[in-house]
Amino acid sequence: MTGAVFLRIDGIPLHVRAEGRGPVCLLTGGLGSSWFDWDLVVPFLTPFRTVVRFDRPGYGLSAPEPAGRPLPTAAGEAHRIRAVLDALALPGPCTVAGHSLAAFHAEAFARLYPARTAGLVLLDGSVEPDPHPRPAPGLRDLAARAAAGAATAAAVPYLLGPAARRLAARATTVRREDLAPAPLVRRCYRTGRSLRALLRENTRYLDMAAELAGLRRTAPLPADLPVTVLAADDGLRDRRTEEWLAAQRDLAALLGAEYRSTAPAGHLMMFDRPDAVASAVLDTAR
User: Fold this and answer.
1) Closest residue by Cα to residue 29 from 20, 19, 42
2) CB-based contact 141:188 (threshold 8 Å)
3) Which of 169, 235, 242, 263 has its CA 20 to 30 Å from the CA of residue 143?
């Protein structure tokens, strides 16, 4: 199986890529991420795995989510992952790897669809020890949409979107460069839809963290499910790095997961250590 397709998932055309052969793994990126952020990882996996990537609504090449749709939730993203796999006719167990914010989505998938989960990999996943949902979710979402609309009308994404993307990538890699192809960055980050998707997800961050905390109480992971937490270690022995690695170790302990760290690597570890990311995925499956 190979190639890129557009699949209508819950009425929204999503850009989906499936490559390689063998057992299925699905890679899902963090806030503001696009499919090509996994490009360096995929060649390590495709000789052994069928690799699925997709852009959430508004990101990459996917269509935006229309107004009036439900707010972003961890359960909703878990449903989207299942729907993508169903649309590709891949009903068997899948190893799901989530980076950063998408670690919430991947863990929610494993908890809500345990029979569909062969393994769970959390790549420098977001951690909130005691999250609480924020008030007025509808108003916050409306404000995020309005802010994105105003910025788009002023051509802010077109003028500054690619540069902002590159600055963010450089700040979150130890190599201090964005390895994504410049034409794709321009194509995907000059759009108002990508800014709207980013602002909507960001405003729902603590709500999704609280939602996942509830799922941890009501939907336990299968006892035999392999789980790996892979943390990015930038090699600096400062307080910020040590606190982050401690939070990742605590997450691994909470989930009964194997803890690994990879160094030197920034938060965008797919650029700095694609080999370590692929190893974590290949080693995690039941």
Assistant:
1) 42
2) no
3) 169
